[in-house]
Amino acid sequence: MSPPELITSAANPLVKRVRALTDRKGRRREGAFVVEGVQPVWRAVEAGWEIETLLVVPEHLPASAEPMVARRRADGTRVAELSAELAARLTDRDRPPGLFAVVRARTSTLGELPVPPDAVFVALHDVGNPGNLGTVIRTADAAGAAGVILLGETTDPFAPAAVKASMGSLFAVPIAAAGADAFLAWARERAVDVVAASGYAERAHWSVTYRPPLAVLLGSEGEGLPDELLKAADTCVRIPMVGTAESLNLAVAAALMLYETRRTAFPHRPGTPSSPPVSG
Amino acid sequence: MSPPELITSAANPLVKRVRALTDRKGRRREGAFVVEGVQPVWRAVEAGWEIETLLVVPEHLPASAEPMVARRRADGTRVAELSAELAARLTDRDRPPGLFAVVRARTSTLGELPVPPDAVFVALHDVGNPGNLGTVIRTADAAGAAGVILLGETTDPFAPAAVKASMGSLFAVPIAAAGADAFLAWARERAVDVVAASGYAERAHWSVTYRPPLAVLLGSEGEGLPDELLKAADTCVRIPMVGTAESLNLAVAAALMLYETRRTAFPHRPGTPSSPPVSG
Predict the structure, then answer these.
(1) What is the ipTM metric for this complex?
(2) Rounded to whole angstroms, how far apart are CA atoms A204 and A124?
(3) Which fold, B5-104?
(4) Which of A75, B77, B136, B249 has a CB 3.0–4.6 Å from the CB of B72, allowing a cystine?
(5) Do A243 and B272 lie within an 8 Å CB cutoff?
(6) pLDDT at B268
(7) Residue B117, φ and ψ in degrees, nearest 5
(8) Topology of B110-265 in CATH?
């Protein structure tokens, strides 16, 4: 096989393409996004996502990652090499990663999401911070959630900060985008209990027994959930707060809800005690 | 009273000072840091932190914040005005805030931390990301923690990203920095149970009954806790994970630990059910 193409100019079309994909409009137009770092790229490959191009930065690529790159190349994936200097211009990180990938974007529709009896989804309405969204996706993966549902004006899961914060879990958790009404109709039809988190709810999140399938629903960082969604929810719960903090970080709130539903709903899962701990 | 001084030049010593305080060395040398935004500055004022200077950006200051600024000025705080253009150069945010404050830094020593019988501390070892640290401080406040203890090479709580992520809770939660050995000696002496979170522990975090006073101990984002600290802990627990995620975000892990200790340790606190929820 001939050596991989070597890119030395910032005017190279592939470099321009990577830059264009940092922008939401560019990602929408191209249907692709960029993944940085050996581990996240490896997760995308393993999960069967379509890799358009691998961009290798030889100076920064660990030797342990070379076989993966060679295998993809043998399978027909386009592989190009970038200088460290050029790579530094394509990343916000202090040290450029050894590997970038251009990956085809992929989301599900609500109708495509499987709803097993034990499904716990997390639905986010108008969440604006891509780092928060990525962290929610990472936590949803760890907590065994069945999917992440993006409602309203929720930010793009393929934004660089979201991809980074998801630490590769983006490739493991189904993600669907929908309007709020379509979400509520889907939940009714599939008998998915909607559990809204709100600072104004009366019941504490840890005093409820959750019955999957369910969707934990959280609102935007600044505003929380709009009234229509709070009213339409089957249950509203509040995460107790005692200090001067006015709210919790959105990704923290989502994690507390996801782990609390898991703790009370799945007492016989591995890692879960078969009865609740005794307070004392 | 004469009108506040108006700053129009980037060469103004106060502007230079604000810039110098974005740097850890500058903060150490000066013993001060910068707070951005009306709400966080108001929290610092209310909590009695020493405000060196208030920098007002008239174009962006909401009218509702004017009385607070006027009161501080009447009390002798130095108040200066900045153009929006100059303010934009002092912030990473897309839209400059209406108010900046230069605040005197303040931390506690371990010996100064009160240890009431129900105290729950969170101790972080070698945590590198200031956004994570700020989010931990915010969650510690909301969960009623008695303090945040910074061990080893943990990042600076007065870094701009930490201050921002703490959302003003920095001014409500005692923060102490210490060496790991001093922390362990303090915990033994004050009968503070050390509960370490580790991916390798056998017991799930939700299967343990926590007995305050205690300190939840978490390690760095990449490495977790070093063996010495894991061995020295009174209890080691693991937050169960089921998906492909290799770890949880540090601030998420701290939140799950803090809320879990609170749920099982304080069954009679307001907002806490008097008995654990029944699984089903």
Answers:
(1) 0.91
(2) 20
(3) 60s Ribosomal Protein L30; Chain: A; (3.30.1330)
(4) B77
(5) no
(6) 43
(7) -60, -25
(8) Alpha/beta knot (3.40.1280)
Record the pTM: 0.92
Q: Is A274's pLDDT higher than 60? A: no
Q: Does A208 touch chain B (CB under 8 A)?
A: yes
The mean pLDDT value for B196-225 works out to 94
Contact B256 A251 (CB under 8 A): no
Torsion of CA B46, B164, B270, A226, to 10 degrees: 110
Does any CB of chain B come closer than 8 Å to the CB of residue A128? no
- Test mutation, A120, A218, A244, A257, chain B, max B CBs within 10 A: A244
Query: What is the pLDDT of chain A when averaged over all its residues?
Result: 92
Chain B contact present for A45, CB below 8 A: no
Q: What mean pLDDT comes out for the span A266-274? A: 45
Nearest residue to A18 (alpha-carbon basis) of A201, A160, A200, A218: A160
Count interface pairs A-B at CB distance under 8 A: 178
Task: Read off the pLDDT of residues A241-253 as tens digits, 9 standing for 90 and up.
Answer: 998 888 999 999 9
Residues 6+ apart with CB under 8 A from B94: none
The label of the residue with tokens 């509040």 reads A238
Residue A276: pLDDT over 80: no
Q: How far is Cα of residue B191 from the mean position of the Cα atoms in its chain?
A: 24
Chain A residues inside the 8 Å CB shell of B265: 279
pLDDT tens digits for range A5-22 = 899 899 999 999 999 999
Cβ distance A278 to B246 less than 8 Å, yes or no, reads no
Give per-residue burial for A12-32: e unless 16+ CB within 10 Å, then b.
bebbebbeebeeeeebeebeb
Summarize pLDDT for B107-139 with one digit per residue, the tens.
999 999 999 999 999 999 999 999 999 999 999
Partner B contacted by A38 (CB < 8 A)? no
Are the beta carbons of B213 and B186 closer than 8 angstroms? Answer: no
CA distance B231 to B217: 12
CB-CB contact of A64 with A2 (8 Å): no
Q: In chain A, where are the structural domains located? A: 5-104, 110-265
pLDDT classification of B266: cutoffs 50, 70, 90: low
